[in-house]
Amino acid sequence: MSDYLKRTIVKETVSSRYLPERERELRIFLPPGYNEIVSYPVVYCQDGEDFFNFGRIATQANKLILEEDMEPFVIVGVDVDKQKRTAEYAPDGDRHDDYVKFFVEEMLPFVSSRYSVRNEADQIVLAGDSLGATVGLHIALQYPRRFATLISFSGAYYPASQAIVEAYSDSLAWLHMFMSVGLQETAYETDSGVFDFVALNRSMKPLLEKKGAKLHYSERDGLHQWGFWQKQVPEALQWAMQPARI
């Protein structure tokens, strides 16, 4: 078995006063040679179970660290109940505000208290796919300069999200985003209707750039599915961990 397949993944349960369920599951990847006296950059993933199972992010991170000599980093996947996902991730969802508070005010301190992760804005990456990318952006907007780097795979930037960015009054010069979308995502059926994700991302791009955000934007052949996003995980992680940013 290759060394990069020997992964250390720990499961945790975070208590919450904001979430109705009063708790949320996490899965945490610890890099090879993890040592509590050393601090590590950290990647927080929405749809944590999917990022680990379908995105193979732990295996791919292990390979980058062992074979590409990338600085070791921790990955935290935050699980979600798919039936409540839109309510939590969409900015107009009825659980959105509580989820954002849980993420920043409860989940982050929980991880920091148990694992040796860095808390500076340029040492934290928020990663997500579809609505998971959307909630990452809104978390960053609600806590300006608390987070500086986002990975957005096929972000679900519906009109409500675009309106929030358009109305944002401050500069976003502190924000860096890896932003990609598949060219075949022109009629994807969601629980909110059928959307053209290429058009949504093309519309969001100038709104962010007008505010000063720095984007690594790409359109490439791909569908709205993990088979497309999984292939981009190494590139996105390498971009996010560039010395100029981390």
TrEMBL record:
One Pfam short name: Esterase
InterPro entries in the cross-refs: AB_hydrolase_fold, Esterase-like, Mycobacterial_A85_antigen
Entry-linked Gene3D superfamilies: alpha/beta hydrolase
PANTHER family listed in its UniProt record: ENTEROCHELIN ESTERASE-RELATED, IRON(III) ENTEROBACTIN ESTERASE
Protein name from the UniProt record: Esterase family protein
